[in-house]
Amino acid sequence: MSKRHPLIPAIAPHLIQDYYTPEEVDALFGVVKNHGPWPLISALHFTSTEEFLAVAGGKNVPADAKLTDFTSPSFRGYLGQLGVCYYDEVHDIYFSDKLMKTVKEVHGAQYAMTHGMLFNIAGPSHSYDSGHVDSASYRGLTTANCPVWVSAVMAKSGLFEEYKVKTAQVITYFYESGIDGGFTYWPDGPDRKPQRFVPPFHNSAIVSDNSQMYHRREANGPRELRDCPELEITTKLHWGGDDQWILRNGDTEIGRFDEANRRALFHWTGLVFMDSAEVKEYLEHTNDLTLDKVFNMLMADLTERGVAYTEPDDPATDQAFIDLLTKTYALSPDEYPAEAPVNAKAPSTYV
Ligand SMILES: [Fe+2]
């Protein structure tokens, strides 16, 4: 019998239009425009192809895949992490009662705690994301001390559910053009049919349980503008004024897009606790995980499954071990919307 958790959200996601006030929208975009430049999402979270594939690889993987084969010109910055707000301009949003109330309602929870807030911004681009779940929070392990790929393997394995802290997200989209660029999600599990929210998005909040539900961004923008051949893992996004966003490698411009083709989202995560007993367990660290404990539990499970492995010196960075865990706990969607297929830079090399 499979130990795999089905990865089904507490409730199906729903949309709230006009989520932020006009003043809040100005403050949020003000940070993006005034505090750049911003790195690629891939640069923030992955150091190798194996790490990417552990999180968002699909069923068919290129034999000679490179990390840049899965890198879109999609950029990210943090507005706050683990309860620390990085920009005074958005302090009141980060700690807002409105966001707390929205996430408590997802779970029918009594308490909430602000956690992370980030933005993603992209111009016309492909999407190489085969679907993923967002990094969960576990007691003792968060995005601050647990690599994204480890968190993805933990979710797929289903071995760590008792340590998971419930979360919910408010992901507010701004994508006015409406050329593709939707949000695909699998509310009944990755082996069932996907559903979509489709643009145009005007301050449109998707309320979701994203660490328990497969989802992905779709390719967006005019198709003839989606290639970005000079993209490097160190490419940064700069606000250029006059409605222009500029991609640069060092001082060299390699591309630009305008506000009309900009797809952005602000992603806020709250931790929620059903009752005071859950709060107490979280705050007092009476039943926490450590990375060592996680790797020991994974290796014990490999042994129980009869999967041969060599104990790595450093499991967090051993590429062969990461690849073995990805294959052992492989889980990804079976089906994609006809309107939003998975993109590939070199489909002829797929095996
Ligand atoms: Fe996500």
Our count of helices gives 9
Helical content (DSSP H or I, runs of 4+): 10-25%
CATH domain class of the domain at 14-44 and 73-145 and 158-289: Mainly Beta
What are the low-pLDDT stretches, counting only 5+ consecutive residues below 50? Answer: 346-351
> How far apart are the termini?
29 Å
Bound heterogens, unique: fe (ii) ion
- For this structure, the CATH topology of the domain at 14-44 and 73-145 and 158-289 is Jelly Rolls
- CATH architecture classification name of the domain at 14-44 and 73-145 and 158-289: Sandwich
- Measured by DSSP, the beta-strand proportion falls in 25-35%
* Helix and strand pattern: EHEHHEEHHEEHEEEEEEEEEEHHH
Mean pLDDT, to the nearest integer, reads 91
The CATH superfamily of the domain at 14-44 and 73-145 and 158-289 is q2cbj1_9rhob like domain
For the biggest sheet, the summary is: 7 strands, antiparallel
Strands in their spatial order, largest beta sheet: 1-11-8-16-5-3-4
Structural class: alpha+beta
Shape: globular
- Rg computed from alpha carbons, rounded to a whole number of angstroms: 20 Å
Q: How many strands appear in the DSSP assignment?
A: 16
Description:
By secondary structure, this protein is an alpha+beta fold. Helix 3 runs parallel beside helix 6 (about 150-155) and helix 3 packs parallel to helix 9 (about 320-330). The strands form 4 sheets. The protein has a 7-stranded antiparallel sheet with strand order 1-11-8-16-5-3-4. It starts with 13 loop residues before the first strand and ends in a 23-residue tail after the last helix. It contains 9 helices and 16 strands. The site of fe (ii) ion has 4 residues, from loops.
